[in-house]
Amino acid sequence: MNTYDDVVNDYLRAVEQALNGVPANRRAELLAGLSQHISAKRAEIRPGQETEVEVRSILDLLGDPEEVAERARLEDPDDEPILIEPKKKSAALIWVLITIAAVASLCVLGGLAIGFLALVVGHR
Questions:
Q1: How close are the terminal C-alpha atoms of the chain, in Å?
Q2: What is the Cα–Cα distance from 48 to 106, expressed in whole angstroms?
Q3: CA distances from 90 to 85, 95, 110 (A)
Q4: Which of 14, 18, 28, 38 could hold 69 in an S-S bridge, CB 3.0 to 4.6 Å?
Q5: Can you tell me the distance from the alpha carbon of 73 to that of 86, in angstroms, rounded to the nearest whole number?
Q6: Residue 72 in 3-state DSSP?
């Protein structure tokens, strides 16, 4: 670990703190992606030629940790699946059953109406 790793680690910690409230799996995914990106950019610097200015310029191009976190929230705000609580499951089931019953009733009434019209038209 060289002295510039501390600069990168401080930046990643700041991003992690800014991601407060983001689900842990999404936060870990984002931090891993940032870390890989930073490592790839640092690898482009000739060995022995890396300076703190170059490392900070890589981080500056990524943006302020708060801005990085905000962009991450906007990219995928609903990463977690929607979970229906047990109380809400029964209410949801009732609405599904009501919808099925309504559609079935409309089909039966439509069939009866068509049959009646066919009967009336057939008697003329």
A1: 96
A2: 77
A3: 9, 9, 30
A4: 18
A5: 28
A6: helix
